[in-house]
Amino acid sequence: MTGLKRGTVSISPHDPDWPRQARETISILWEVFGDRAEDIQHIGSTAIEGIQAKPIIDIAVGVLNMEGLPLDRILERGFQESYNRFSSNLLYVLETDDKIRTHQVHILPYDSLQWHNYVDLRDYMNAFPEKAKEYEELKIRLVKECNNVQTAYTDGKHDYMERTLAKAREYAKNRGKV
C-alpha cells in the first residue's frame, strides 16, 4: 500500500508497484511542467530497490528557473502546497481526504547540489545493495526509537546521510570512467 497518515512515522516492505506509480506521476508532471522541466526523477527510499521505506512516492522536478512555474496547473491536478523544513525547494503533496500522504513532489533547481543529492543517493544505493541494506537497518531502528515523531526520525538519519551523500557524490563523479 502506498501512503502514510500525516503525523505518523512507519516504513513498509518494498512494494514492486512503487516504480509504476512513480512513472504515472512523472507522466502527469511532464504534462504540468512541459519544457519548464529539465528532468523529472523518482527519488527517495521508494526508488531504492528492495528496501523498506516510508510508503510515500518522492519525485524531483528539476527546473532551470524557479520563477513563473505553472504552479496553478499542479494544484489543478490535486496536489497541495506543503512545506519542507530542510530546504527552500517547493514541495507539493498528494493526500487523500483522510490525510494519507501518497506522493511528494520536490521542485528545485536542476543541476543543483540538492538535485544531485537526490539522484546520486538513489543511484549509489541501487548500485551497492549492501549500502541500501545498511540504510534500511538504520531506518528500521529509527522508526522504533522515534516515538512517531517525524523530526526525530529525520534528524536521526542526518549524520549517516552526510557520510553517505559524500560517497554517493564520489560514485557519481567516477561513474563511467575506466
Keywords:
6 strands, alpha+beta, 19% strand, 44% helix, 6-stranded mixed β-sheet, 178 residues
Short account of what is shown:
With 178 residues, this protein is an alpha+beta fold. The protein has five helices and six strands, in the order E-H-E-E-H-E-E-E-H-H-H. Helix 3 (113-127) crosses helix 4 (129-145) and helix 4 runs antiparallel to helix 5.
Outline the biggest β-sheet: 6 strands, mixed
Q: Kindly, what is the distance between the CA atoms of the first and last residues, rounded to a whole number of angstroms? A: 41 Å
State the helicity in percent bands: 40-55%
**Structural class based on helices, strands and sheet pairing:** alpha+beta
Shape: globular
Number of continuous helical runs: 5
Query: Gyration radius, to the nearest Å?
Result: 16 Å
Strand fraction equals: 15-25%
Low-confidence stretches: none
How many individual β-strands? 6
Mean pLDDT: 93
Q: SSE order in H/E notation?
A: EHEEHEEEHHH
What topology emerges from the helices and strands here?
Elements (H helix, E strand, L loop, with lengths): L3 E2 L12 H16 L3 E7 L13 E7 L7 H6 L3 E2 L8 E6 L4 E10 L3 H15 L1 H17 L4 H25 L4
Parallel strand pairs: 3-6
Antiparallel strand pairs: 1-6, 2-3, 4-5, 5-6
Write up this protein.
- The protein is built from five helices and six strands.
- The radius of gyration is 16 Å and the shape is globular.
- Strands 1, 2, 3, 4, 5 and 6 form a six-stranded mixed β-sheet that branches.
- The longest helix has 25 residues, at 150-174.
- Strand 5 and strand 6 form a beta hairpin.
- It is α+β, with helices and mostly antiparallel strands.
- It has helices spanning 18-33, 71-76, 113-127, 129-145, 150-174, and strands at 4-5, 37-43, 57-63, 80-81, 90-95, 100-109.
